[in-house]
What we know:
Elements: H1 7-10, E1 17-18, H2 21-24, E2 30-37, E3 41-51, E4 53-58, E5 61-62, E6 78-85, E7 93-102, E8 124-133, E9 138-142, E10 148-150, E11 154-158, E12 162-166, E13 185-186, E14 188-189, E15 196-199, E16 205-211, E17 215-220, E18 223-241, E19 247-253, E20 255-256, E21 262-263, H3 269-272, E22 277-281, E23 287-290, E24 297-305, E25 316-323, E26 329-333, H4 336-350, H5 369-382, H6 386-402, H7 422-425, H8 427-439, H9 442-462, H10 489-511, H11 514-535, H12 546-555, H13 563-577, H14 588-598, H15 602-610, H16 617-622, H17 656-662, E27 665-667, E28 676-679, E29 689-696, E30 699-708, E31 711-718, E32 723-727, E33 734-737, E34 740-747, E35 756-758
Parallel strand pairs: 6-15, 12-22, 28-32
Antiparallel strand pairs: 1-14, 2-7, 2-10, 3-6, 3-8, 4-5, 4-7, 8-9, 10-13, 11-12, 16-25, 17-18, 18-23, 18-24, 18-25, 19-22, 19-24, 20-21, 26-29, 27-28, 29-30, 30-31, 31-34, 32-33, 34-35
Amino acid sequence: MRVDNNLHEIFPSARWIGMPEVFRGRSSPLLRREFKVEATVTSATLTICGLGYYEAYLNGCRVGDHVLDPAQTDYDLRCLYVTYDVTSQLQPGYNVLGVMLGDGWFNQDCVWCDGKGLPYGPPRLLAQLTIDQSNGTCLVVSTDENWFCAIGPITRSNVYAGESYDARLEIPGWNIPGFDAVGWKSVEILSPPGGRLEPQLIPPIKVIEEIVPVSITEPCVGCWVVDMGQNFAGWARIRVNAPAGTLIRLRFSETIAPDGMVDMASTGVFAIRVEQTDTYICKGGGLETWEPRFTYHGFRYVEITGWPGRPTHEEITGIVVHTALLPAGSFKCSDERLNQLHQMVLWTHRSNLHGIPEDCPVRERCGWLGDAHLVCEYSIYNFQGQAFWEKYLDDIETTRVRNGGLPFYIAPGKRTCGTASPDWMAALILIPWYLYVYYGNRYVLEQHWEGMRAVLEHFRHKADNWLVEGGLGDWCDPKNSTAPTYTPPILTTTIWFYECARIMSKVANQLGHSDDACRYDEWICHIRQSFIVNLYDSKCCTFGSQTADAMALHFGLVPSGSESGVFRSLVRDVRETHNLHSSVGIMGIRYLFEVLIRFGQGHTALDLMHQNTYPSFGDLISRGATTLWEYWGEPEVDQSNGPRSLNHPMMGGFDNLFYNTLAGIRPDCDHPGFKHFFLEPYPIRGLTWVKAYHDSPHGRIVSEWRQENGYFEWKIEVPTDTTATARMPYGQDIRKLEPGNYLLTNQCDENAQMGRKTQ
């Protein structure tokens, strides 16, 4: 589908250009334009959209520090551009604007294609350089037929398969004034991708940090395996001194085989049919430093062949690359296992932030909706992600345009996997609601109201007697990584129907749609009644599984007066039926620990988090996990196609409990954006102290507590222009707090007393 684009509004004199395909082959082309500045530059901006990826230079110096730019979108519906202040990079006289283009997602024609037409076309560039000069004139340099192009040293790039670089093909000086461009080809004017041009408002992808390897081994002669000690997303930088023509190959994996060689299975080669591989051909003549530009990998291990001699820790560096979201929270406690699990969640989430919330940085790299709505809340607690999640909602909206008003499973991209099941498309209701509750963004509800309404109506259309079949359900619970074993999808999908109806009633009231609000209130009653009548086992006081009982308790779907009975069934299932193990997948793991702690079984939750035998996080840690796996590592699952991903954030929903339960920092949906919020920590036996903060839109909220020698001490910070309701543990004392710092103390028994406010 094509939409009217606004090219001439943003780039009045620019046209899309690229290298003629007959010359390009698989290479990343170099494009250049030389121009003359007549006077001193008073200000200059470069507005640019290079598809799929670009790297821009002015007079030989990089413009900005973005990588893998711009963020992925449905390019025939919208394309993102970036504007840079480049005043300091220009000079009177001759100047050169140079751009290197990569295929990126725009021309991803290697994986998941199979004749499906995933590529949008060859790489192309749209740019406009606007220069204000001291003589009062304005010089505009735009992409047009006056540019020239040539083959560059990147001979192949693909976001999945990797990058090949032949340093012998480098063209020294190609992006500086005075370069002799004899032999360069004229660019080709290309058609627009079709989408509207929009500014890239989310933080860019950047190089975030560097990792020094923990070991380098030689499992076979001439084959070196580098262990970075951490699974992450990015690439490797090499420093090498070798003769011209030396070919160095790097293969990236998440794990190694028993013989010490890299094991590529978990990277999904059975599905994508490529391996994460970079190659570098040396130009010779001294020390060479190289890292790829237009690809990224999910990995812990790097296999290196072709290296002259033995590589050292100084010559191989891990480069962590992801969307540069600033931190918005911190959690630490006296229990190192909990701290370790929190860090695993953060590493996993960071590994899957590349312009969209990915499911994994290896096999798929897709924005699956169900994964995203289970990740969103803990992402907000930990990172300043407002613009990031708003952009992803817009991606979901573009999938609706393609699909008659309903979202696909994946956004954005042409690999849609069909119309989403109800529990996955619930993301279009849940994520706007989270942005409203945590940031106070009412306009997000307004912007997505029609889509949210379409999703809820689809739930109702799919419902039979107010129960909804057809969901994917509690994905990846133990013993089955492809379908739920313990919890029938009708249970979880109907719970999401209930929760989405409850949210939509509130949204409708907020936006003034009173008729819809009344209708949804009726739905809420019908769904709850049918859920209990048809799915509740009153004799055994259970909905049949840990996930079902935990979610029913959390969302208030338990028969009135039966909460304690259902909770006892849940605890009995954990401690007795499963011998202190969980039997949950991606939905149950989000709520299980919170429910256990809030209903008085914090020690059971802690025991579960310390469990070290299958299925448990401790078991995965003992097997080398530094990030969350897509599954519980089942050895008996048919893995003829290879194991699942070892870096999957959908399993991280439990991270919410560190903030909203142990530290007790919770937003108030009636006063969104933390204008008013709740502070209600749940100290549990076995924890001595907790320290946490969250940077709300109004400032930092701090909740730190310590319990020892029979006393509980709680430090609180309430930011300016907010109020908080604090409930003191070990008693029923509740205090309304104005902005300020507080120190509250209490005996660890029912005779608790409130403390004092500190200045």
